[in-house]
Amino acid sequence: MRPGRTSPATAFDDRTGEILWEINLGSPVSGFPIIYAVDGREYVAISTGFGRFLDLTPELRPSANNTLFIFVLPE
């Protein structure tokens, strides 16, 4: 999983390097992604919104809200 400066998140296959999926989060990532498991299923949580990175990327026009994205990983 790679959160990007321009707000896309990209998931890669750890064996082949192939892109599994990519999504535009609409705002810069405002924290570190967290990976956790519930009943054997793995999830990735990513928070976005106004954070310290907005000063570094004035060209971005992010959403005005903080958002928490949670993705379930394939089994």
Structural notes for this entry:
The protein is mainly β. It has one domain. It contains no helices and 6 strands. The strands form 2 sheets. Strands 1-2-3 form a 3-stranded antiparallel β-sheet, with no helix packed on it. A 3-stranded antiparallel β-sheet has the order 4-5-6, with no helix packed on it. It is globular. The protein starts with a strand and ends with a strand.
**How large is the share of residues in beta strands?**
35-45%
- How far apart, in Å, are the first and last alpha carbons? 16 Å
What is the SS-derived class?
mainly beta
Give the topology string: H per helix, E per strand.
EEEEEE
| Tally of DSSP helical segments | 0
Largest sheet composition: 3 strands, antiparallel
Shape call: globular
Strand order of the largest sheet: 1-2-3
How would you describe this structure in keywords?
3-stranded antiparallel β-sheet, mainly beta, 6 strands, 0% helix, 75 residues
